[in-house]
Amino acid sequence: MWTTAVTILTSLAAIFAADQYEYEYSPDYSMNNNSSAGQRLVSAAESEKDEFPFAGAYFMTDKEKIVPTCTSSLISPIYAVTAAHCFFTESEARLEDCNGKVSVGVKGSVMASITCEILSSGDARMRIVDENFYWYILFGAVNAFRNKGHMEGFMMDIEYFIRHKESKDSSMGPGGQDIGLVKLKEKNVKSTPICLPGPDFQDVLLKSKLAGFGRYERERCLTDTKGPMKNHYCQTRHNCKENCRPRFKIHNDRVVNDCNPGPSPAEYSRLCEKVTLQGGASFREETDEIHLFQFPLGSAGKQGRFLETCYRKTYEKYGWCRTDGDFYNIDNPISGEEKLSTDYGWGFCSRDCQVTFGKPLNGRLRKVLDADVFEESICQRFVDAYMTTQKNKSVELSKARPEALCIGRMHPLKFQAFYTHDDPLGNSTKWGVLKKQFFDSNPNVIREMYKRNKIDLNGNGYFTSSVGSCSGDSGGPVFQDGSFNGEKRFVLTGITSGGLVSINEGSCGGVNNPTLYARMRGKLSEWVVAMVDNTEDICFVDQIDDYQKVLTERQQYFDQNRMKIHLPIQTMDNNKIDE
User: Fold this and answer.
1) Contact 229, 347 (CB under 8 A)
2) Measuring CA to CA, which residue among 537, 261, 210 is closest to residue 405?
């Protein structure tokens, strides 16, 4: 039976007004209890020394900068790659000044004397010629913090930077290829370079690794997945820039500072409270929400009615907050306080909200070992939205479209469902558990529900959020495991560029806000090969280790969670590919 200390629930009417609707369903299902296991994702953690020897902290400053500008990846003993915007962009150092003379590059408060030449390919090879300028990559360090020198690792000075002819420059418009090639003045013989992917390398839909020297703490609090506004930022004081704890009003205009440990707006659902107090419904730990249905006995087993979606009244971990905006629809993101039909937007505070906000923790190499790489069609939708919102800029969009990977989290829909044949609000109403088989037989039911509440507008069986790449992570790698000449090697599949959706200026994360990575497979790897002096020192890997085994296990996960994703798994006769 129900335990009152666990939770009560709230109505889906808090998300859309037409909260009840009818549908036809297949009666081929069982109504016994069902259980399923959840998955806990790994947060960013500090890397171990020499865990990723190819990763370097990129410094470019005219003063004693204490934290790295960006992250870079060593691809041969003398070449590394990073993001184009980590160097001077076109608006900061113009190609028209590439006339053999010294010119000045200006990037924010950083100024440098530079020379450049335009190559036959149209790319620009650029050098910083100030003797007292700090321009180097630090390898072999987990702590890249600089205080009159470095406590660990070794510095490799940079000879020149090659800027792609279609280089990213945000001040001139969207898109562009966010990649730059760095040549070191001397060979780095101490670090093992990362390999590049072959033309058919599986770089999407598999769990991938990230690394970077960027900020670890967010400056604002994000909600988790257990409320109606999932992975949204909590409201905070107006124009807050740092130490932005949640701050919002609840009923009677009472101001709450920080996450509220008291009852959430879920307490106002009469039906959901009745189901929990009298109907025996309770949340499993991994469940985000509970859906309620009615199957009238007079419908001949063909008609059903969705009633409400219920959320927890209390969540003992971190409390709840009012949320800022509605970013479920990438084609129409809404800023400011979002008015729902019966309340304002809210969600439960995530673990991120428990950190001590304030000065960001930069300069330490951190890792994420289980990031999701979105399928190409989904990524292109995000890129389309990004390009469309910037279409008034002066860049030729067809030329500037980035080679892109979208990195974040793909969250399966985690729910339970209960049903009744009786009057839902009756005093003797009985409730049963809908098993997984019902939704397997009636996939459109759950698909329509999550479209209506905007969480899964495309009916894919999941929603997406950021993995939280931050400033300083720019240029950092997304990578996979591979083998080269019988030796285990990492394979660079992408380079951190930045967030695709401007949810909150300076913030990392949020629903539908993946990080854009420059995709190395294909065009950009070919560009690197064309730019280097000696390709013999660059290794290429054709495919991930245990390719078919990894794909099979990943497909099983998608299928178990009803996610509409299909990987190219080889069939038993080894001649056909199951698309």
Assistant:
1) yes
2) 210
Say what the pTM is.
0.86
SS3 state of residue 105? strand
Helix intervals (H) in 74-169: none
Backbone angles phi, psi at 560, to 5 degrees: -65, -30
Cβ-based neighbours of 269, under 8 Å, separated by 6 or more = 8, 9, 10, 11, 308, 310
Intra-chain end-to-end CA distance of the chain, in Å: 45
Beta bridge partners of 155: 138
Tens place of pLDDT per residue across the chain (579 aa): 232 222 223 333 333 333 455 545 444 433 333 322 222 222 457 888 899 999 999 999 988 778 899 999 999 999 999 999 999 998 999 888 887 789 999 998 899 999 999 999 999 999 999 988 999 999 999 999 988 889 999 999 999 999 999 998 877 777 889 999 999 999 999 999 999 999 999 999 999 999 998 765 567 888 999 999 999 989 998 878 777 889 998 877 889 999 999 999 998 899 998 898 777 788 999 999 999 999 988 765 567 889 999 999 987 778 999 998 888 887 777 777 665 545 679 999 998 787 655 444 568 899 999 999 999 999 998 888 878 765 544 444 445 789 999 999 999 999 999 999 999 998 889 999 999 889 988 888 998 889 888 899 889 999 999 886 555 478 999 999 999 999 999 999 999 987 765 544 445 678 888 888 999 999 999 999 999 988 889 999 999 999 999 999 999 999 999 999 999 875 434 444 444
57 and 158 Cβ atoms separated by less than 8 Å: no
| Residue 162 near residue 125 (C-beta atoms within 8 A) | yes
**What does 204-238 look like in DSSP terms, one character per residue?**
SSS-EEEEESS--S-SBPBB-SSSSSTT-BBPBST
